[in-house]
């Protein structure tokens, strides 16, 4: 039923691995075993964008990150990502981001990068593998203390959303928000992971947030639709599970960690919760970091 979700995800993987190559739809379709027409049709049906436009937007976005993070010549980056000349690259870049590559390289600012598509989820995997699934053996959530210095947080605070799913269902554009924050990843607070979600508290009500922590000294532009708040320094109790297989174990890992995080009594460690003006953080990078919920505390 969901075999095309998996197949389109393989197309995405193939595109990312060959993003700087003069790759062709024919070559990709031959490797996947389907006709170019059928690949294009299914990709558009599941993602809402044509395969050609997706490759174009990902190339221009990856090129933008190289302009931001390296001192390579604009021409060299243009040729690397398949543009025939600096002029054609400049036209494409200006069309995508309303500024020239040279201007962006000189003074990077938040822009709406195209993010990698994800169409094959743990839900699809469960349906596909339900007859072969064996019991998952997870390790208990680890508990440790981490200090996070005072910082700023740029993002969106939604008091009507209680979790990740509700946040995006309330009309926030994942592509636009995540793409813009990706363009700001070079400003991420040292020691933190860039795009971060979590929870905040306002007048006794709990809401959900999404954004990026940056240094307290950050004075750059704030993307439209987002705001910037200062977060005091704090110790956090970190409830953590190490890297895991996202497709197989995501739901079980998140449930295991959150069961401990939301029911833990910190007094046995000499702490009490300190969430009145501070916010909880949620780290979700399955294969590289794992999953964690961070709750601010103070000494009793």
> Residue-averaged pLDDT, rounded?
90
State the helicity in percent bands: 25-40%
Sheet of most strands: 9 strands, antiparallel
Distance between the termini: 54 Å
Indicate the proportion of strand residues.
15-25%
Give Rg in angstroms: 21 Å
Q: So what's the overall shape?
A: globular
Order of helices and strands: HHHHHHHHEEHHEEEEHEEE
Q: What are the segments in which pLDDT stays under 50 over at least 5 consecutive residues?
A: none
Structure summary, number of beta strands: 9
Structure class: alpha+beta
Number of helical stretches of at least 4 residues: 11
Domain HTH araC/xylS-type: 9-107
Keywords: DNA-binding, Transcription, Transcription regulation
Protein name: AraC family transcriptional regulator
Pfam families: HTH_18 (PF12833)
Can you give a write-up of this model?
This protein is 39% helix and 21% strand. It has helices spanning 3-17, 25-32, 36-47, 51-69, 74-80, 86-97, 101-106, 122-129, 164-169, 174-182, 246-261, and strands at 142-148, 151-158, 196-202, 205-214, 227-231, 234-241, 271-273, 280-285, 290-299. Strands 1, 2, 3, 4, 5, 6, 7, 8 and 9 form a nine-stranded antiparallel β-sheet that branches. The longest helix has 19 residues, at 51-69. The model has no long low-confidence stretch (mean pLDDT 90).
